[in-house]
Specification:
single chain; 656 residues; mainly beta; Quinoprotein_ADH-like_sf; WD40 repeat domain-containing protein; Vgb; WD40/YVTN_repeat-like_dom_sf
């Protein structure tokens, strides 16, 4: 589906009151072309009764900021729409025993809301150093527990006592994620799912005592991604645990301490059961199923076809089953009568950040969105903007002839868009080229015109080190993968220069795995021998090499943690380095930072660390031009395009 709108062009003049924009104005003309990408992607969802007994469905629509929504189940009307400050998404919701709704912000804050009201309360950052919250679960007497990143910790919150760290540090040393949580009300024990190397931990929140439960055969998985507890007869409650990579769900009997089943293909965003636990309701492969957890999953029955993936379930005392799908459909199903009612809820779209940018062969600026995905095109000559739905999160794009090649997360996927034809997913435009096992993201793309090939540099999956180099033959449509050109390092940049493919690496791998090398490398890949023929460190101690371009002298100019380097492929030698600015201390990972372009005015322009800057190639003099910018491409007329969060901006340097 294509949504079209005309963007009004707003010139930022020197009378703008914002001091930063006033400062930027003296360097040239800045234009804000507005929000490019929107989405109605819903995440954490929960059915809740307000104090008057009205059933509401709460959900969070992703955006900047994310919005907490509530719909009245009976009327289907939107009764709440409030922003969550500084949070771009929410993965879970939980209701405490005292009736309050808790919302884990993606910025590390916990929010509180009383169902039926119009207010939210920001309770602040849960634990120092924790920047992301995942699942929540409710405990006793108004308490809630939450899962954090990057410290792999569990917090407790109680209205009378505030926040505390119940594990006294990482739940598992050396890991970053507590990804999932479930509280067992019968015993008072917590169950925590860990990643990016999978662990299942039983923890007593009162004492902090921990016990590892995951059988050894599953410990090569990435995450225990989701946990749910279903009640059973005679105390035989069951814990459902979803494992990734792959999609296997384990059923663990909390009374007998036995793993009873392994189920493939089961969704685990939400499951529910009747009060006695005789029937469990879940979604799998787009359908809603019911099964007796004491019997083999193969005996489950489809009760609703094409229902989608459940974001939330509610099994009511009268036997009705309510479900909210990830696509925003509210389904009301009477189990006895086998009747159903489906309503597409009016989820208001929200702006999402620009995550990738390129200047297309059609003269348009193409952008890809984070995290909800989607693409947009902007025609600078007409001001016409179009949104294009259908693809997941784009990490990188590159142009060859009339086509745009696209690297997609997750699972290392590649697509190609023919810009001579309309965007039409049903007609394979963009067309899927394939995907690479064990690889996750492609930020680095480069065309190899002489050989009619494309190169993709990869970042590996969660918890792994070592990115692959992937070569795509345009004519034969064949993908070839070359594992870890530089061992234990990902590929953060690529350029074809003087007949050679040159790659820049990052010491980072997939999330949840700390580097095991100390500095990024430059490597030369021989396209005939298909192997590395030269390798060097251009800047000692740098964590990533990004932004490589062909400079005014024909050599490669690139950035490594705030330092400009110049490399000659002919002699395989480093010509010079020039520190331009201080670079932030390495924390968890770095996959990309600088972007450079050689401008017709003779200067090099770049973005890095949320700024736009200029380099004089002859003197290497560095000038900061603007703040709060990222990504960078140049149009045919020398206009520079970059992002400011959700907005596309352009800049025309003043003539000398």
């Amino acid at each position: 589906m294509i949504l079209t709108r005309i963007i009004s062009i707003v010139l930022i003049t020197c009378v703008v009151t914002h001091s930063v924009l006033a400062q930027e104005e003296k360097y040239g003309e800045f234009i804000n072309h507005g929000i490019q990408l929107t989405a109605s992607m819903i995440q954490g969802s929960l059915f809740v009764d307000d104090k008057n007994g009205n059933t509401l469905i709460y959900t969070v629509v992703r955006g900047e900021p994310a919005h907490l929504l509530a719909f009245d189940v009976e009327s289907k009307k939107l009764v709440l729409d409030v922003p969550l400050p500084k949070a771009d998404g929410v993965w879970d919701l939980t209701q405490s025993t005292d009736g309050d709704l808790y919302i884990p912000g993606a910025n590390g804050s916990l929010f509180k809301h009383t169902p039926g009201t119009q207010e939210i309360e920001d309770l602040g950052i849960v634990l120092d150093g924790e920047t992301y919250l995942w699942n929540l679960t409710s405990g006793f007497d108004g308490e809630v527990f939450g899962a954090t990143y990057p410290g792999c910790r569990i917090f407790r919150y109680h209205p009378d006592h505030g926040f505390s760290d119940i594990g006294n540090g990482p739940v598992v040393e050396g890991e970053n994620y507590v990804r999932s949580l479930a509280f067992h009300h019968r015993t008072g024990l917590l169950y925590a799912g860990i990643g990016s190397r999978a662990h299942l931990i039983e923890i007593d929140p009162k004492t902090g005592n921990k016990k590892s439960l995951l059988p050894e055969k599953y410990q090569d998985k990435e995450f225990v991604y989701s946990l749910e507890i279903i009640p059973g007869k005679n105390g035989e409650d069951r814990l459902f645990a979803l494992l990734t990579a792959g999609s296997e769900t384990l059923i663990y009997n909390l009374k007998t301490k036995v793993f009873e089943q392994e189920i493939a293909g089961m969704d685990m965003k939400a499951i529910t059961s009747d009060k006695a636990g005789k029937q469990v309701y879940l979604t799998s492969k787009g359908n809603t199923l019911a099964f007796d957890p004491k019997k083999n999953f193969g005996k489950s029955k489809v009760i609703l076809k094409e229902s989608g993936t459940a974001n939330a379930f509610l099994h009511k005392e009268n036997g009705d089953l309510l479900m909210l799908s990830s696509g925003g459909n509210l389904i009301e199903y009477n189990i006895k009568a086998k009747t159903e009612n489906r309503t597409k809820l009016a989820i208001p779209g929200q702006p999402i950040p620009i995550n990738a940018i390129t200047f297309g062969p059609d003269g348009k600026v193409w952008t890809g969105g984070y995290l909800a995905g989607g693409h947009a095109s902007f025609d600078p000559s007409t001001g016409i903007h179009q949104e294009h739905k259908g693809l997941d999160q784009t990490e990188g794009m590159a142009v060859f002839e009339d086509k745009i090649y696209i690297g997609i997360y997750p699972k290392g996927k590649f697509y190609v868009l023919d810009t001579k034809n309309e965007w039409n997913m049903a007609d394979s435009n963009p067309k899927a080229l394939g995907q690479i096992d064990g690889q996750s993201r492609s930020f680095a793309l480069a065309a190899i015109p002489e050989l009619r090939k494309m190169a993709f540099g990869m970042i590996p999956e969660y918890g792994k080190l070592g990115g692959a180099l992937v070569i795509y033959d345009i004519d034969s449509e064949e993908l070839k993968t070359f594992e870890q050109p530089v061992p234990k390092q990902g590929i953060s940049s690529l350029i074809f220069n003087k007949g050679a493919l040159v790659g820049g690496t990052t010491i980072s791998g997939g999330l949840g795995k700390m580097p095991e090398t100390k500095e990024a490398k430059l490597f030369v890949w021989d396209l005939g021998k298909m192997k590395v023929v030269e390798e060097l460190v251009p800047v000692a101690g740098a964590s990533a090499i990004t932004g490589m371009i062909e400079g005014p002298d024909g050599n490669i100019w690139g950035m490594a943690d705030g330092t400009l380097f110049i490399f000659d492929v002919d002699s395989n030698s480093l010509i010079s380095t020039h520190k331009l600015y201080d670079f932030p201390e390495f924390k968890s990972h770095i996959w990309r930072s600088a972007f450079l372009v050689l401008h017709p005015d003779g200067n090099i322009y770049g973005t890095d660390n949320r700024m736009l800057f200029k380099i004089d190639p002859s003197t290497k003099a560095f000038t900061k031009v603007a703040e709060d910018t990222g990504l960078l491409v140049m149009g045919d007329d020398g206009t520079l395009f970059f992002r400011k969060a959700t907005e596309l901006w352009s800049y025309k340097p003043k003539s000398n």
